[in-house]
# Entry
Amino acid sequence: MTEFASLRPLLDRLQTNLPIIQAPMAGTSSPALAAAASNAGALGSIGVGATNAAGAQKMIADFRARSDRSLNVNVFCHEPARTDPAREATWIERLRPEFRRLNAQPPAQLTEIYQSFVADKQMLEMLLAVKPRVVSFHFGIPPAQSISALRSAGVVTLASATSLAEAQIAERGGVDAVVAQGYEAGGHRGVFDPDAADDRLGTLALTRLLVRRLAVPVIAAGGIMDGAGIAAVLQLGASAAQMGTAFIACPESDADAGFRAALASDAAHHTTLTRVISGRPARCLANKFTAFGLGVEAADIPQYPIAYDAGKALNAAGKSAGEPGYGAQWAGQGAPLARSLPAAELIGTLVNEIRHARHFGPI
# Structure
């Protein structure tokens, strides 16, 4: 593994062989997918922001039944939502015609369906007890004492950042490495404040900027779909590449049939950033829900994850009616390059592509 000698400080901390992280996509990254990725030498990940401590613990147990390798558990660190009954009621009425097209009724009211990690003491206690190798943060970072407690328990901590300012906050907060999430990335944009101005930095520019300005390792994420892309970000100084959309079509993922069909369709060429589905900006395959969102003002949408309560109900109604176009089909701009391969085979292919791009010897 001498060809990765310069990357060993981070890879040794992660206890993984390859500079590849299968991204934690809540709802798509199954324990089976994470285990297959980890068993193949990458770092497998699960997203637990959409469940509670008991649900997360079960997912970790499911992973450990399949693998004794490292696991990354990703949590959401958004500001807890502030309810606005008037705005939420208006939003329900705005969505009512969409439900009517599906012969369904919208929820009578909306609730905060996910608890933020910053307020979830049970999730922290569970993670401190089960000690996954890695815990990563999205939408911000938790209080310094939470990060310190995890690190004291031997857990490696990562945090997503979309700008230098966010990355510096994460570094000062004590994380071990920063994930540079470029604007190309699929899924929820990791901005700490969804209502602040967004410079929309691409993966290459952001990665190089953070490598030059941070003392901790940088992991590149966004639009990376093959070994050539991994080699490119390693050349820019990244210590690893995080890839999400590349793994959606793997048979081990939890992507449903509608999502897989959309990913293989022309929609993959037309991803768009929307906040109507969940209440936060997220990159999605073009579908009926994103089309509905065109022209909708951010101020009209309830806060995350209250808006997601309505979004999930609409998707459920759509699926019942045989219409998958209201799903949260999160995917990045590299979506047309997705390959439907088992995770281990995909990782083997990526390694060969890195070798070809970097003229590496055997890995």
Observations:
- The first strand starts at residue 20 and ends at 22.
